[in-house]
Design a protein that fits this description.
348 residues; alpha+beta; extended
């Protein structure tokens, strides 16, 4: 039986019979230890019968359950020739957002995106074919943390002085006028602020274009379900390529603007300068989660271009190549039209 996004349960492709996906427990946050490592007890296969295959083109490791087959790599469109093997244990997913958008719903969205492209190579239209996109669960980490930041800086308070100046009036005569001039009085300051962060989301895949997956937000993480292998039936899942410690460093970069905003509010005044900050992280926890996308890849002039559909919201993001031949023909057509107009104007 395969997971059916329409019903949110399992469905038999032969007889159409359905069955609910049974989940147990709750989505659990896992605490980091001091070195941000996890024990081997946290590692397992995504499913007992799971297979994995490594793409020789981009290095992505894709996991799936029989009777699903490897086929082409969904990330770079390379043909996968390596033989699948039993999946290696890795950090177990804690939760999953099941597919909501079906393939027959995703394809019109891709076709609409393609239809809005100017000067796209003709071969790009291959992505409009039904078999050109694959349903894949991408790996993500979420991080929770409490931060306590000690800072030093400067507070700027505005004050005003009256300045006298000469200005020409309507008759051209010089007249004396006054105006208020703004100045800033700076004073050193320091303090401590606290921030709380919940579900800072980091994509743990290097095979997708990061800006595109960020633009595919938002994800309704409040609807995460405890992980069950049944959600993967009929779909593929990518093994994470970003390790926990590296992911947490990326999460720190996302947290930084909020911490700076808290410091500026604490400094007060009209302007703020942050001199130094010492951030301490407490109660750090994480989840390994899987989020669903429909993804298609296309090669053009040695580059790989991807189209990604958020399989929860239908948001489409992609990068597109430009056809030099089509651009040249368009420019030539404009020149011809201008010449015809000039010649027609000269004959009048």
């Amino acid at each position: 039986m395969n997971f059916d996004p329409a019903t949110g349960g399992l469905k038999c492709p032969a007889c159409g019979g359905t069955k609910a996906v049974e989940t147990s427990g709750s989505v659990v946050e896992i605490p980091f230890d001091g070195a941000f490592r996890t024990s081997s007890a946290d590692h397992e296969k995504i499913a007992e019968n799971a297979l994995q295959v490594t793409c020789s083109g981009c290095g992505a490791v894709v996991e799936f359950q029989p009777p699903e087959v490897a086929g082409a790599c969904p990330f770079c469109a390379s043909a996968i020739v390596a033989q699948p093997k039993s999946a290696d244990p890795h950090l177990a997913p804690a939760a999953v957002l099941p597919f909501r958008i079906q393939k027959n719903q995703a394809m019109p969205l891709v076709q609409q995106w393609l239809g809005a492209l100017w000067f796209a190579p003709s071969g790009l239209q291959r992505l409009a074919q039904q078999d050109a996109v694959s349903g894949v669960y991408l790996p993500f980490f979420t991080y929770d943390a409490t931060t306590v930041t000690t800072y030093t800086g400067n507070r700027g308070d505005y004050y005003y002085t009256t300045e006298t100046f000469l200005e020409a009036d309507a008759q051209g005569r010089q007249v004396q006028r006054q105006r208020q001039v703004q100045h800033t009085r700076w004073s050193p300051c320091g303090g401590r602020v606290q921030n709380g962060f919940d579900d800072v989301l980091i994509c743990a895949s290097r095979s997708v274009q990061r800006d595109k997956i960020r633009d595919a937000d938002p994800w309704d993480l409040e609807n995460l379900a405890p992980y069950e292998p049944a959600f993967l039936a009929g779909f593929k899942a990518q093994r994470y390529q970003v390790e926990l410690a590296e992911g947490f460093e990326a999460a720190k970069q996302i947290m930084a603007p909020s911490i700076d905003n808290a410091i500026r509010r604490d400094i007060g005044g009209d302007e703020q300068q942050i001199g130094s900050r010492d951030v301490r992280y407490f109660d750090v926890t994480f989840k390994h989660i899987l989020l669903p996308v429909w993804i298609g890849a296309y090669r053009f002039q040695g580059r790989v271009f991807q189209v990604i559909v958020n399989a929860r919201t239908g948001e489409v993001q992609g990068e597109r190549p430009y056809s030099a031949a089509k651009i040249a023909l368009a420019v030539l057509a404009v020149i011809v039209i201008i010449l015809i107009f000039v010649i027609a104007s000269g004959d009048r």
